[in-house]
Structures are given as C-alpha cells and as structure tokens.
Amino acid sequence: MTTDEHLDAPPALTEAMIAGLPKVLLHDHLDGGLRPTTLIELAADVGHELPATEPDALAEWFVTAADSGSLVRYLETFDHTIAVMQTVEGLRRVARDAAVDLAADGVVYAEQRYAPEQHLQRGLTLQEVVDAVQQGFDDGVAEAAEAGHTITIGTLITAMRHADRGVEIAELALANRDRGVVGFDIAGAELGFPASNQAAAFAELRRENFPFTIHAGEADGASSVHDAVQQGTLRLGHGVRLVEDVVRGEGADVDAADRAQLGRLAQWVLDRQIPLEVAPSSNLQTGIAGTISQHPITFLRDLGFAVTINTDNRLMSATSMSREFTLLAAEADWNLDDLEQATLLAAFAGFAHRDVLERIVAEQILPGYEAARAQG
After folding, report:
1. At residue 334, does pLDDT exceed 60?
2. How many CA atoms lie within 13 A of 246 on its CB side?
3. Where is the Adenosine deaminase domain (predicted)?
4. CB 105 within 8 A of CB 23
5. 162 to each of 20, 67, 159, 229, 345, how far by Cα in Å?
6. Going by DSSP bridges, is the β-strand pair 246-247/261-262 parallel, antiparallel, or unpaired?
7. Residue among 111, 190, 204, 218 flagged as catalytic
8. What is the signed CA dihedral for 338, 272, 233, 128, rounded to 10 degrees?
C-alpha cells in the first residue's frame, strides 16, 4: 500500500467512534422499542400481566420469543407492549423514552411509526392517540436537548394490513400532516395480505401528495415487493427478499455484484433508487439469513441499491443503531465510508421536508463524519 492509499483509507471503526456517529433511522416501531423498566411500571399501572417482572429477565424473554424465525411469532410479542400503550400517560411516556434513547444513541433524524388503531382499548379516540404520542415526542426532544443531543422526529401513521381501516387511517395521517406526521405505512402480517388490499388508501395519499412506505419483502417474497411498487411506494420496508429477483454468479464468489443478473423488478427498484429500509438483526430473527455476514444487505449495497440501516424493533432485537453499525462493521466488513453512504441515503430518503433534511445533513451528519475521520 502506498502512502497516499493509506491516507485515503477510512479509519478503523471503534465502539466509541460508532457510538458518536450521527445516525438516521427510518424504520423503527414505537411499540417495539419500549424500555423494559417502563414496560414493567406501565403494566403494573394498568394491571397487565407480563411474562417476567425483572428488567433483564423481561428483556431476555422478548429476544427469545422474537428469535423464532417466524414473523407471526415475532408479532405476538407486541401483545404485551401494546397492552400498556392504551392511555394518554402510557403513550406519552413511551414516546418520550423513545426520543431520549434514540438521541442518546446518536440518532439525529428518526421516523417513528405506530398504528393508532391498536391503542383504542381503553376508550381513546384515534386523534387522542396521535396527540398523546406527539406530546411524548415533544417532551423527549426537549429532554434530549437538555442533555446536549439534537434530534428531529417525524411520525409515520400506520394502518394494519389485515384490517379494513386503511382509508380511515390514511385520512388520520393527512389530518395531522402539519402536526408532526410526515408519512404513512402499512404493517402487520405480510403474507396473505397484499398491499393492493389497501389500494384505496394509497390512491387517496397520492391525490394529496403525501408520502408513504410499505412493508414488503420481509415475510413474503419478490411478488410482495412488486405489489408495493405498483401501489406507488416511495420506500420499501425491509425489501430484502428482492434478492429473489437477482440471479447470483456462479463459482466461489457467488455474491460478486458484477456477476449478478437482475430481473425486471430488481432492475426497476435499482434504477429508481427506491430506498430499502433494511433491519439486519430483525431480519435474522424472522429467518432472512443465519448471520449478519450472510444477510443480503451487503450484496444489495454492492449492487448499487439504496440501502439504509434500521433497527425495526429495538426491544425485540435488543438492539440500537450503534449495535447495527457495529455488527455490520465486525461481521460484514463495512467501513466508515459505507456507514456514511447509508446514512446520507437515509437522510435524503426521509419524509420530512427537503429543507429540514438538508439542514440535518449540513449541520449534523457531514460534520459528524468529518470529526470521526479526524479522530481516526
């Protein structure tokens, strides 16, 4: 290696460096990121029985239950988190905690998603749910600022794909588009509930020029991604099973990007740079791959797809953005340049207004990575 090559190489990533990097999180479920201590306290308040009442034991239960390789079983863990998010106080506290925890992890822009229709069991209206969550985010952003962390949070209002409330929830999102809500999503059991079932909701959102993302290519294959693309999604929630439309090379290096052949769907997503909201640890739990090194995220990145890094459900995966970065660095050889590229892709794929995203990039992301290089 020449001296110039050595100077151009990105610095070695350390745990401290990764912790300090600015991060952008596009795919994180509010009801999948509760602190175990908060969950225990809120469950006691509402009389909900948990599988464990000691924080470490409860955290371990969630990871074990989610680590089944089945999305259906994975989703069952939400019965406990949703149970304590049925009051204004519970929703507000969970949202506040999320903002504080993400900011402490270096997240400078986050989109938090949740389904208001799942929080009506104790008499709240849909709008009351949205108001409580927004107040919690406002509280958390202010608390984070007091601790020296600046974070911007936008909300994605989610409709459950197995229900028949898509238009109603889309209208709820539109009614709050100038009050913290930046986009729409559908979530829940993917297999058997195609995005086209909610076509009327997506048509309404397109008429109103309101952005949306769709969970696709997580528990169902490339056909689900195709369906989401046909609905006009601006991003793909997970999207990793898009690799089913890619023929890998032959020989020892089957993952060599220059030897892969893309099908028409994969080529369309690549050409239009539709961002993939990839959550590596979560994907391992739902059976996408056995290890981070085998996860298709690196292959998709090498093919040129707009890959972003996400947590999905921090409680169920016992993860954070710093942990996801660390795993990719340690097990898939991602370097500082790779992490910066994914972060910038995520920033400009955000649903906040462009001036907001440009300010975050200019004032937080680029200086943060420059500081990391200087430090290295």
Report:
1. yes
2. 26
3. 22-361
4. yes
5. 40, 23, 9, 19, 31
6. antiparallel
7. 218
8. 50
Kindly give, in sequence order, each residue whose CB lies less than 8 Å from that of residue 359, ignoring residues fewer than 6 positions away: none
Among 375, 373, 282, CA closest to 320: 282
**Domain range annotation of the chain:** 15-375
**φ/ψ of residue 182, rounded to 5:** -110, -10
Residue 274: DSSP 8-state: P
User: 59-85 in b/e burial notation, b at 16+ Cβ within 10 A?
Assistant: bebbbebbbeeebeebbebbebbbbbb
Residue 148 and residue 125: Cα distance in Å, rounded?
Answer: 35
Q: 373 is written with which tokens?
A: 């290089």
CA–chain centroid gap for 96, Å, is 18
CA–CA distance, 184 with 212 (Å, rounded to integer) = 4
- Looking at residue 255, its pLDDT comes to 64
Asked if 218 is an active-site residue, the reply is yes
Residue 312 DSSP label? B
pTM equals 0.95
Nearest to 279 by CA among 261, 297, 293, 291: 297
Supply the CATH classification number for the domain 15-375. 3.20.20.140
pLDDT, average across residues 81-101: 98
Q: How many helices (H) and strands (E) does the chain have?
A: 19, 10
The sign of the dihedral angle between the CA atoms of 200, 201, 203, 204 is: positive
Contact (CB, 8 A) for 95 and 9: no
Half-sphere exposure of 224 (CA within 13 A, CB side): 26
Q: Which are the contacts of 96, defined by CB distance < 8 A and separation ≥ 6? A: 136, 137, 139, 140, 143
**pLDDT tens digits, one per residue of 128-153:** 999 999 999 999 999 999 999 999 99
In angstroms, how far apart are the furthest CA atoms of the chain?
68
User: Angle CA(317)–CA(318)–CA(320) in degrees, nearest 5?
Assistant: 95
